[in-house]
Design goal:
Layout: H1 5-28, H2 41-58, H3 63-82, H4 90-108, H5 116-139, H6 144-164, H7 167-175, E1 183-186, E2 193-196, H8 197-214, H9 216-238, H10 249-267, H11 273-285, H12 289-306, E3 311-315, E4 318-323, H13 326-336, E5 343-346
Antiparallel strand pairs: 1-2, 3-4, 3-5
Helix pairs in contact: 1-5, 1-8, 1-9, 2-6, 3-4, 3-5, 4-5, 5-8, 6-8, 6-10, 8-9, 8-10, 9-10
Length: 352
Amino acid sequence: MVPQPENVVVVVAQLAVIVGLALVYLRVVDMPRAVAGVYTLRDIFVMLGLIVVLPLIYLRLPGIVLTVILVVVFSTVITYTVAPLLPRVVPVLVALALVGADVWMASTRADTSIGPGFLALNDLVVAIAAIGVSNLYAQNGMKSRDVAVFAFGLAIYDVIATAWLPIMLEFFTRLLSLPLLPALAWGGRTGGAAIGLGDVLLITLWSVVAAKAFGMRAALVSAATSLSCVVGIFVAMMNGVLDEIVPAMVFLGPLMVVQQVVFRWHYGRDRTMQEMRTSSAVRVAGDPARAELERALETRVALLDATADEYAATWRGEVVATAPTRWAVVHAARAARPDVVPVIVRLVPDTR
């Protein structure tokens, strides 16, 4: 199956939008801390082990069991992603509505047809999952080194599972008949273009972690490089240079490793989330914000004794607003003092 150019354009455009939204999410939304704590290199090796084992398990599970697993996983991820943006039980309802609609549309479509309605909904589910998971890892301490090791490990696995063994081909062939297709896809079975959820997640994750660790310029370079690589892969497929099933991480993995080495050499060590938040506040307000930040930090000790809220917006030593999340305190500060650009201060230690 050779992908048609119009389908490739749609898939690449969707991927670019996902990466862009993930970067915006990183800047404006503060996700809850993961139960597992800060992600480390040990967690990366555990994840790599699961990626190797899970496709083999899925190929042997009954279809109904595999569907239930996919429903639980995607519902949980979507709920966790939209929870900071919506009140109370609304995130759960949104997740159940999206996943339920995906399952219903998959069950009613013909086995030989994958329509644009199902693909549009499924791509939306994949997009939310990629944005949420990438930010969960980045905001809970994943370093650029960890992503580089993860990408390189996946590149090796992709060669074995896709190029040498038929594991990935059998895996995706089976999943085509089930709901919640783990891929960003557009077009029918003939001429359609698709990129796997794992590739989408790694591209998004690398851009988000680069933004957290080194800044937005590094993130944009990472995103542009990854998207260019994906376009090159599709062009090679359309010209018969590459086969129908391409292990994309074989190309993306080494590219991310090289970028990580260059970024560390150019920028130095990775920033923490707290350092990224503080740096962003200073850049938004301009140079005078440095003095304001010092005044805000002087106020911090008193705030810790006076309130249990996690964030405060300050301006010239005055506390403009407080709230339990950064997203909420920004909106509260805008409502209270729309004429100023306050500094947002986190009121609890943050070592992520």
